[in-house]
């Protein structure tokens, strides 16, 4: 996952929870389709006309993504996805577009439908909360959100209460009372990240942890991408700030001065980050090596954001990267007004729908309630859209993948006997959870919190402020109430089945396949089995492999952090892991003239490679089992062999399905955003996975020395 994330749109999680966040498009007309399960003993002898037509239609869709003028052995990503950017449906987003991320827009259609299910809500005892969701939605639909009315009194009042807006308030702004750190702490209460970027640890006591702040608005700023005013990053950020400031009737000279001050602040702040390459872990090393004293303001953050919970007590200074914040404090002292102006606009950016056109307002309103009231809509979704038949098929697929993983562990030559025994023990105790983790009492408690949302007619600005605050409170719930919960409590993420995601959780050695992932382009019950294994099978294999990556391998079968490796086997393991670091570090992203961070992304790249190999092995084993039950492979139902309209063998379809999960359309700013993420950018994760997969070269008949079958020995751990 990511999350999480098998996907790059979320920040890196700490050790216990490995997220493969995979946002998949849900095609509305597919939701009601039925087909036999992988685990069924009986076989269908005929396929209905509707099924045939669906397969033809989906095959045509897959073909429309491809650039057939490219040899798959030269550039498999371009071959599989080269035309996706030209056929993708229009959507409102400032994020990158991808075949997977587009799930969010299809899920809004499901959310819209669920908002009308009053009888279902009554049966589930959530009708009062659904009414609150409907009221907010109606308020949002009726509001003027394009462009953001940044001068709305509700926004300005909040800004003044947490630190002020000198560009607007002029001499009334009191610099002596301003604290950049306290204002940043207040911003986190609304999910806005100014100069504090906090996340939640996925284990008891669910305290916050911190990443280096990501400066900028529509494009993260770096020293080299704002070096001149003609750069895309400079122009995008300048325009965003100009649009906010002009609503306050400031003169153009004043607006230019304010924007210039923010850029000056950014440039100087970035020199601190540049010392350690923007890597939070290296920042912590700096703190220790330089013997930095404790940054004395962290307790303010916990007072402001966490009701004074004493998470800070006993923590080492390196956990908070005190070196960075000690230096940043000096920079902020030199640019007080600019920092306050920047943080004020960060609050506005958080409240901004950031629409490209008013036509996308409905999607925006649905997205907000879907994400903030996730436990409510998850309860409705799981009751309405997650069937036992689906659960059975996915369970059977997970079983096949685990058999494949076990065979790898039994046969890999470089493991010694004792380490192999520990690895096999760990595999045997993995607990699969399909759909979501269930905690009805906690779920109902979180849903009831929606009733506390204060909504005011004809005051959408105040309503969105209140909703953002509620969302953060729900997100922090377990940390805020850690004294009342069990030490082995699970992260809240695991309760949300209505997310297109999968997880491996180190602390209980479990794999989670969430209900939201079980839709195209990751899965459909009518697909050929080769496509199912190339998509969902790979995703499951990816999460299983996280149990044996450089982080997962430090946890044993009981979820305890323990070194169960012999010195010899661990040495080979680390050497093989370094192969992935070196391989991916060679990929240059020409759009930004930066290379992939092979060290930061190594575990996700290891999981991709392991997941792809396990999935193909599981598919081959599955087909052998079917052949033993059939007289001849030709008598198998066609849906288990090929996709109509695609002149591909089943195993070629397997790899095509994998690659098309990651079809994407990036703008320059998205590459900058992903530089510090744990996932390789989509194109290079596909190229890296297949060019290190000998089966791919055989299936696509790639000659040795072609880009997808290089002469160098391929990287492989599992």
Automatic annotation (TrEMBL):
GO molecular function terms attached to this record: metal ion binding; metalloendopeptidase activity
This protein's UniProt keywords: Hydrolase, Membrane, Metal-binding, Metalloprotease, Protease, Transmembrane, Transmembrane helix, Zinc
Domain of life: Eukaryota
Any single GO CC term annotated in Swiss-Prot or TrEMBL for this entry: plasma membrane
Pfam name, any one: Peptidase_M13_N
BP GO annotations: protein processing
Ranges annotated as spanning the membrane: 12-30
Domain Peptidase M13 C-terminal: 501-713
Family to which the UniProt record says this protein belongs: Belongs to the peptidase M13 family.
Name of the protein this chain belongs to: Membrane metallo-endopeptidase-like 1
Gene label: Nep7
């Amino acid at each position: 996952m990511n999350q999480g994330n098998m996907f790059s749109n979320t920040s890196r999680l700490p050790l216990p929870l490995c997220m493969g966040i995979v946002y998949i498009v849900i095609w509305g007309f597919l939701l009601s389709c039925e087909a036999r399960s992988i685990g069924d003993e009986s076989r269908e002898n005929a396929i209905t006309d509707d099924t045939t037509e669906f397969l033809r239609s989906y095959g045509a869709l897959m073909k429309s993504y491809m650039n057939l003028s490219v040899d798959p052995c030269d550039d498999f990503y371009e071959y599989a996805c080269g035309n996706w950017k030209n056929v993708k449906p229009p959507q409102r987003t400032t994020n990158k577009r991808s075949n997977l991320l587009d799930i969010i827009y299809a899920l809004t259609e499901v959310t819209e439908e669920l908002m009308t299910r009053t009888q279902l809500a009554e049966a589930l005892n959530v009708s009062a909360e659904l009414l609150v969701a409907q009221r907010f939605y109606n308020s949002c639909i009726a509001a003027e959100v394009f462009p953001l009315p940044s001068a709305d009194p509700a926004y300005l009042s909040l800004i003044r209460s947490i630190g002020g807006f000198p560009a607007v308030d002029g001499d009334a702004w009191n610099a002596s009372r301003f604290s950049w750190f306290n204002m940043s702490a207040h911003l986190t209460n609304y999910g806005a990240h100014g100069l504090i970027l906090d996340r939640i640890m996925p284990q008891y006591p669910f305290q916050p942890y911190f990443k280096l702040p990501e400066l900028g608005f529509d494009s993260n700023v770096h020293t080299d991408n704002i070096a001149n005013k003609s750069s895309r990053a400079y122009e995008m950020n300048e325009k965003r700030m100009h649009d906010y400031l002009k609503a306050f009737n400031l003169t153009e000279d004043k607006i230019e001065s304010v924007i210039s001050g923010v850029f000056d602040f950014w440039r100087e702040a970035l020199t601190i980050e540049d010392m350690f390459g923007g890597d939070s872990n290296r920042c912590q090393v700096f703190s220790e090596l330089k013997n930095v004293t404790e940054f004395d303001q962290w307790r303010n953050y916990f007072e402001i954001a966490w009701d004074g919970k004493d998470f800070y007590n006993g923590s080492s200074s390196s956990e908070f990267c005190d070196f960075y914040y000690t230096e940043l404090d000096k920079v902020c002292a030199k640019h007080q007004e600019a920092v306050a102006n920047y943080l004020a606009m960060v609050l506005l950016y958080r409240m901004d729908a950031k629409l490209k056109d008013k036509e996308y307002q409905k999607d925006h309103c649905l997205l907000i309630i879907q994400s903030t009231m996730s436990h409510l809509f998850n309860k409705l979704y799981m009751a309405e859209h997650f069937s036992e038949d689906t659960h059975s098929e996915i369970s059977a697929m997970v079983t096949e993948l685990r058999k494949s993983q076990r065979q790898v562990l039994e046969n890999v030559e470089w493991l010694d006997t004792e380490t192999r025994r520990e690895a096999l023990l760990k595999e045997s105790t993995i607990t699969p959870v399909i759909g979501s983790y269930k905690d009805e009492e906690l779920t109902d408690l979180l849903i009831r919190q929606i009733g506390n949302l204060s909504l005011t007619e004809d005051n959408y600005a105040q309503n969105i402020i209140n909703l953002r605050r509620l969302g953060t409170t729900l997100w922090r719930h377990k940390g805020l109430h850690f004294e009342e919960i069990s030490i082995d409590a699970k992260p809240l993420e695991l309760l949300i089945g209505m997310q297109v995601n999968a997880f491996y959780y180190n602390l209980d050695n479990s794999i989670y396949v969430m209900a939201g992932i079980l839709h195209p382009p990751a899965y459909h019950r009518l697909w050929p089995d080769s496509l199912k294994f190339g998509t969902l099978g790979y995703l499951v294999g990816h999460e299983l492999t996280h149990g044996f990556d450089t982080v997962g391998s430090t946890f044993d079968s009981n979820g305890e952090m323990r070194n169960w490796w012999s010195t010899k086997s661990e040495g080979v393991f680390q050497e093989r892991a370094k192969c992935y670091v070196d391989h991916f570090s060679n990929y240059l992203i020409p759009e930004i003239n930066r290379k992939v961070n092979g060290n930061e992304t190594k575990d996700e790249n290891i999981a991709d490679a392991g997941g792809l190999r396990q999935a193909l092995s599981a598919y081959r084993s599955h087909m052998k089992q079917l052949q033993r039950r059939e007289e001849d492979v030709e008598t198998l139902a066609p849906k288990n062999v090929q996709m109509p309209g695609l002149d591909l063998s089943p195993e070629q379809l397997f790899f095509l399905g994998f690659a098309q999960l990651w079809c994407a359309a990036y703008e320059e700013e998205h590459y900058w955003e992903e530089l510090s993420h744990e996932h390789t950018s989509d194109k290079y994760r596909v190229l890296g996975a297949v060019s290190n997969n000998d089966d791919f070269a055989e299936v696509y008949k790639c000659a040795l020395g072609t880009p997808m079958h290089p002469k160098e020995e391929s990287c492989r751990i599992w």
